[in-house]
Amino acid sequence: MLRFDSLVFGPIHSRRLGSSLGINLLPRDGKLCNFDCVYCECGWNRDGRGSTALPTSSDVALALEQKLSSCIEEGIAVDSITFSGHGEPTLHPDFARIVDNTLALRDKYMPCAKVSVLSNATTLDREDVLEALKRVDNPILKLDAGTSAAARAINRPADASYSVEKVVEGMEKFGGNFILQTMMLRPLNPSENLPDFAGDKEELKSWTELVLRLRPRLVMVYTLDRSTPDADLEKLSGQTMEKLVRTLKENDINVQIND
Fold first, then answer.
1. Contact partners, residue 242, CB within 8 Å, separation at least 6
2. Which of 14, 166, 177, 224 is placed for a possible disulfide with 20 were both Cys, Cβ 3.0 to 4.6 Å?
3. Residue 6 DSSP label
């Protein structure tokens, strides 16, 4: 299981964001997420139980300021300051304040860096979260399936009432000014009822229609890169993913493929 020992970590090389300085708003020795994705590099939620202590907004600001100062002194480039870590960052109760502090520190120390948030988009019904995500450079919102049944199978949301339609309605509030990210994979065991983008034409069609409805400024599709809690998952090739997003490109959707 992937663990980040520091509140602010990296920079690490990201397939999607370049040199990425990470911020983990969640417990350092555990995992806190309302999804339990079959591909999560942090492992299953049940195996990530540790302390429940969350850093304060002051803790985050101090750690980030120290790290940014250190990067400048050492001549280390930072392309993105990225909220990721051990779960869903928007679950932090002071998320909006932390975003504002981060934007101010970015402007002071590294004005060329982007501020990015990797989110599963389930908290967009919270006005403070929605507005905070609108303020960052890269709100990167997850949509791993075109139907609720498939999303429940792959993302395993804690909320039994989770629906793709509700998530999409939240995404529509950005007016297209967001980045949509989708994990594409194939289950080695079809009985698991996971989305098979390469083999299930109806599921692909449903997802494609939702993306065309949302028309985000960028779609990031990616596939497996590290070990996963569910071992029966198959990585897709870049060539396969290229075929799967052909309709999007034909409709002038900007797509970034990360294999």
1. 257
2. 14
3. S
On whether the CB atoms of residues 123 and 93 are closer than 8 A, the answer is no
Phi, psi of 203 (to 5 degrees): -65, -45
Query: How far, in Å, CA of 231 to CA of 245, rounded?
Result: 26
* Structure confidence by residue, pLDDT tens digits, 105-158: 999 999 999 999 999 999 999 999 999 999 999 999 999 999 999 899 889 998
Long-range contacts from 159-165, C-beta under 8 angstroms, 24+ separation = 159/34, 159/122, 162/122, 164/210
Alpha-carbon span 191 to 58, nearest angstrom: 47
- Kindly write down the DSSP assignment for every residue of 73-110, as one continuous string: HHT---SEEEE-SSB-GGGSTTHHHHHHHHHHHHHHH-
| Strand 185-187 relative to strand 233-235, pairing | antiparallel
DSSP calls for 16-81: TTEEEEEE--S-TTS-B-S---TT-TT--GGG---------HHHHHHHHHHHHHHHHHHT---SEE
- Only one residue has tokens 């999607």, namely 16
| Calpha distance 48→87 (Å, rounded) | 10
Q: Nearest Cα to 222, choosing from 209, 207, 238?
A: 238
Q: Which amino acid is at 189?
A: N
Q: Looking at the whole model, is its pTM more than 0.85?
A: yes
